[in-house]
Amino acid sequence: MPEGSTREIALAAIGMGSNLSSRYGSPEENVWEAVRRLGALGVVLRVATLRVTEPVGYVDQPKFVNTAAVVETRLEPLELLRGLMGIEHEMGRDRAVAPPKGPRVIDLDLLLYGQCVMEEPELTLPHPAMHERRFVLEPLAEIAPEMMHPVLGRTVEELWIGL
Fold first, then answer.
1. Which InterPro entries does the protein's record reference (predicted)?
2. Which of 74, 109, 134, 154 is catalytic?
3. Which of 11, 19, 100, 106 could form an SS bridge with 64, CB 3.0 to 4.6 Å?
């Protein structure tokens, strides 16, 4: 973030997962490499405990390592999303050739961006399926239980308990 920037600071929630090894190591090491790289997009305030989870949708693949992070950023939502996609690409993920919900070196999802609600071709906020996914809500509830889902009007903790 450039010194003296006048953009407001926003809190963003990022969901993270991996189920393939890479040049960085195991899926756990991929997640930690992604956390390290998030520092280029803002200040990483909190990271949840890593969890091993079953795949959802496309089930014929290895289990995932999932977590969530809260980042303080001055980037606008689309800039942040593009930064996350850049990290994925740099770490070896090619969304163009991988099956949807299939195995991946790293997956970074922008879940919440303050109280922002938007629906653009490139980005929907809040993440449209986050409230249905235990592997998203459980780690996020660990580190940011009070974050509000701006459409549902419920906290992350309330959404997690309601699953």
1. Hppk, Hppk_sf
2. 109
3. 19
Tell the burial category of 102 from Cβ atoms under 10 Å away from its Cβ (0-12, 13-18, 19+): middle
Domains in the chain, please, with CATH? 10-162 (3.30.70.560)
Residue 60 known to be catalytic: no
Catalytic annotation on 109? Answer: yes
**Residue 104 is among the residues annotated as catalytic for this protein:** yes
pLDDT for 4 beyond 80: no
Q: Is 115 exposed, middle or buried (0-12, 13-18, 19+ CB in 10 A)?
A: middle
Tokens of 145: 């239980």
Tens of pLDDT along 49-85?
A: 999 999 988 888 999 999 999 999 999 999 999 999 9
